[in-house]
Amino acid sequence: MIDWIRRPPLEPEIELAGKRVPIVLKRLHNARRLTLRLAPDGSEVRVTLPAWAEGREAIAFAHARCEWLAGQLAKMPQRAAPQPGGTVRYRGDVLHLAWEPSAPRRPVLDGDALRIGGPETGLETRLRRWLEAEALRLCEADLLEYCAAAAVDPVPVGLTRAQRRWGSCSDRSRIRINWRLVQAPDHVRRSVVAHEVAHLVHFDHSAAFHALLARIFEGEIDAADRWLKEHGRGLYAAFG
Predict the structure, then answer these.
(1) Which terminus of the chain has a smaller tally of CB atoms within 10 A, N or C?
(2) φ, ψ dihedrals at 102, nearest 5°
(3) Model-wide pTM > 0.90
């Protein structure tokens, strides 16, 4: 069971590099200690705390590590919207963005280039829509494959623009995947889909859950998790 606490009574914000950033507490009943991290887009500081810990203690924990958090924020990729002649990430590759006003508005893959036309205004929006459509296409195929491997009926899959998580399966009747994963290597996106499919059977992180995930996912979960930990923040740089 998870309880979210969004407005604790003591200074639920922290100043990092001149910016006020909210502190969000996540209470996990099986947690043994306080853990601290920054949201992938730097929008909030997250503290996970055990059931016995007080919110005041968790907030003080975040404030005591202000310098470390500021350093993490400084390491985040700067926002860089896609520009003609620039690049865009797709399935782990870096594609050259070949823009010609007279070309079709819908992006077309051409080797290591992504060709797109139409007015320069709205270019980012058209690219995002194409990437989201690709993300949905790929995730639907992933889900069908993993549901078959887990011997469960497929459920609808949708996309999310969430700033906090890569995937969710909140009610066992629908899976949602962060569309930004279409920029990551295939094995990373597929690991998240497999993770959520495993939750259709085991709605927890028990040994049985991990055993099922290891059985249905063809790659190394640790390697995929490590990639997200090291590079996940970069998936927010182009489209926010």
Answers:
(1) N
(2) -85, -10
(3) no
